[in-house]
Specification:
single chain, about 120 residues, mainly alpha, two-stranded antiparallel sheet, two-stranded antiparallel ribbon, 5 helices
Amino acid sequence: MNDGLTKDEFDALGQIGKTPQRGRVSACIARNTKRLIGLKYIAYEKDGTLALTEKGQQTLFIKNCIEGLRAVASDSSSKLTADVASFLGKKGHISARPAGDGFDITDKGRESLADIDSSAN
């Protein structure tokens, strides 16, 4: 994620990741296609549709993990997708609450968020 993607570019990646892009694409995707292809986040398939590359999939997953970690830090009852919760739990960034009603952020998770915030500046 060192390419400095904008919010609009992340939105385009998310749209491409959710549904196959056949025919006419959204304005958001159209604005960002050239740059995202150049950075190798998306590619045209043989049938002409746009699809995420492995790099694009990883970037979206990392973004979702960071957003999930932030959500847990601000509200321990935040809902996380299964893959994000599993990844953050395996890495020791969050721990499931004993009552099963959410997650608590660990010290390692707080340190990671502080590191992410400091490197963003």
